[in-house]
Prior knowledge:
Blueprint: E1 17-20, E2 61-62, H1 65-73, E3 77-80, H2 84-89, E4 96-97, E5 116-120
Parallel strand pairs: 3-4, 3-5
Antiparallel strand pairs: 1-2, 1-5
Amino acid sequence: MHRRPPSTSRCSSGSPCCWQAPSSTRSGSRTAPRCPARPRASRRSPSRRRRPSSYAGLMAAPIDRERLREMLGRGAQLVEVLPAEEYREDHLPGAISIPLTELDRNSVGVLDSSRPVIVYCWDSA
């Protein structure tokens, strides 16, 4: 199987996305990161919704190959959310496999909440 390198893919359809895990992830007080990591739509009235600045560090942001290397060099964690079978066939060096269908509070327990998380997801469809 041939996959695109991280620099040519896109967040929800393929590129690495940077997501800073909140320190409370291990305690289970926050939901697991998704690809892309977006907050759920609020059912509150518009005046009670959070301001965008309150999501700082929680939003997915596409990154290029250079930024990926820089972040990995500083200790970021690389997570591939591809199905397990695809991960076994081919995956990025050093990546941790957490299939998107298995993402929950327990599965992200293998991650260090004090380090940034880079999520890679690519759909060939």
